[in-house]
Amino acid sequence: MYQPFISPVKIVSGEGSIQEIPALVQSFEAKRVMVFADKGVIDAGIVTKLEDQLKKANLEYRIYSDLIPEPPLAIGNKALQALKEYGADLVIGIGGGSSLDISKAVAVLHDNEGSVEDFLNLSGTKPLQEKGLPKILIPTTSGTGAEVTDISVFSLEDTKDVITHEYLLADAAVVDPELTYTLPPRITASTGVDALTHAVESFVSVNATPLTDALALEAIKRISSSIRTAVWNGADREARSDMSWGSTLAGLSFYNAGVAGVHALAYPLGGLFKIAHGESNAVLLPYIFDYIWPACLPKMARMAEALGVKTAHLNQREAALAAVKELKHIVDDVGIPSTLGAFGIEEKDIETLAANGIKQTRLLARSPKPFTLDDIRDRYRAAYQGELRFGD
Question: By residue range, what is the domain housing residue 329?
Fold first, then answer.
């Protein structure tokens, strides 16, 4: 079956790569730049490094910081209005996934008539007609892969929805590990497990290809071997570099192959309980793979090797189960709770979560094993109880 592979036009990576910003901006002949960055990134001094580069190029710019994690529609629409009022001819997004998502969305919607909600995947009624402003995306975490995807996620009242279109792809992505050195352990952990989730879900996706598999496996190797060090010894430059590369590789893989059950069931956790996206994925990750592994046994065995499991004397089934266990070990080892109860979710909430999870048809369709409402309810219950059954 024919499968395209799509990526940003240009990816600049490696330590110090933020120094390429003047040349990149000038390549778009831009004169007036709008920078989207959340307050945390500004307070950490990271945006100052970007400003230094913009000043070198004698560019006029404005920083917009009225952004929050897991942004609701109102935040997106306010950012869009600010962009239109400023009259920028280029957008730079710097920060975590939410800042990059806002940057992508408003850059495109700048030239399309309507509000953010008009273009949502599940409930929007308008197609995108114009590509909008050029955009440069600079991640400061190693997790979301937002710099290389065309997805912009927004929180609704009880779930999440997305704008997705090739127009949202970055015209240039700058992946500089130096910008991640000051990330605190909790954010390093949650974004790192998010990147790992992208890699493992895209690897077993029904839309996977040899190209996405190669990217996913390399991402799994880099992230699984480095995430513990990056979390607990953030000054380790090699671990930080591996995490940056792993996140971008995972982003390229999942953008083309797609994610599935983990993300589908994580969306209601974020929508209903405002749990950070990475932690929503992390708390569900082993329990979803505990369900789907029989449908992708050969790949699960290969995944075990990439995760660092010694598989020489294991058959495929044993290797697959070892991979599921290792996913849980990683979540535990980086300090993310592995039960829903730890996030304040009660057993009575499972029914509401399941009713919202089954609506994520775009994501669930990529799972190698189908999900019914009962299956989803069962997976939330497993995550609530903190029990892996390993298919037995």
Answer: 185-385
